[in-house]
Records
---
Amino acid sequence: MANLPRESALSRALAREQEEEEGDSQWGLSEQLLASVVDMLAIMLWRESKNARESNRPQPVPRPGVRPQRYGKIKMDVAAAEEFLSRRRLGQGRKE
């Protein structure tokens, strides 16, 4: 069993049981490292593009068992967020 490929049915079944006990184990070290390299490459390319000035940062490769972090419940662009924060600093709160 030690030499079975990670993708085999038995390995996946055992990993599911282990995941319930220990946490996420769907990706091995190679997959995690490859996703990190892809994320870093995307950021490097983004920094040199005109999208960097517009703050359209690339999204990381989704990892199994990891949910993207969200702040708040509404979507707003950078200009709307800056306006909202400036109103809060002045004590005016949310504009209805």
---
Amino acid sequence: MLRTARKGAGLSQVEAAERAGVGRATVQVAERTGETSTRTLCALASVYDRDLALVPAHVPEPDTGSTGRGNANAKGRPSPPGNGGTAPTNGA
């Protein structure tokens, strides 16, 4: 993705590095591995005239259980803690 952005900006690795204030090797490693510091990533994004968006790498699915209502009882209300959403029994 970084390489594509750099080439889209019409820059060599040396030109991008100079404009971002980092070494050419830093640009090379970032393009090859995708790993770099936040500062370098922001600098390169600015040089390439790109915006950065921070998104979670993984968004867990909500726990819907078997009812599809999350942790709720049959009427859609949150279940009280401790009873697992079951109705109390009469001592049985």
---
Amino acid sequence: MDPTVCFIVLFLYWFTEFCSLLILMCFLLQQYYENRLKTLDSLKAIGVNPYPHKFPVGISVAEYIEKYKSLSDGEKLDVTECLAGNT
């Protein structure tokens, strides 16, 4: 058999297998995403916050900035603050 033909046949076989796996992965990711959304909706429906705070927030981001804006670059304090916010 001609090596070029053999290469083309092997490549086409590999390519179809790769495409099949890619389609399967996309399907599984879609199923995972849909299941996750259903779980979040069911938790919200019964009044459970799916993303609860794990720690008490003691200061807002705005208050933190106001409180420590006078510090110079590299200056450190021996203080622990608990704050939260979205990034």
---
Amino acid sequence: MKTIDIGGKERPFRFSLYAIQAYCEMKNISFTEFASKANQIITGKDIDGLIDVLYAGLMGGAHREKIPCDFTREQVGDWVDDAGFQAIPVIIKAFTESIMDKKKETVNPKAKK
């Protein structure tokens, strides 16, 4: 499982079916609509969706690790703002790799590419 250094600590990030379900509920979309939304997020066309993906992935990581979600969607949005614009491609990469690759890796949105 990947981890993301955000919100003052390293947090597990897992974009699994649990996270997809949470994302679909937040956005009030079907599972089949998720693929289109995911493409918009990956290509940088849906920043609001990016925050929801990060939030859902952090929820998925917490769920997998059986730890409480000690954050809200609004806090996650603030963390992205605090990390700066360089966090966006790092989060997109974590999202993409979380779906395709299950290796453990730490991702730091404050790190420069």
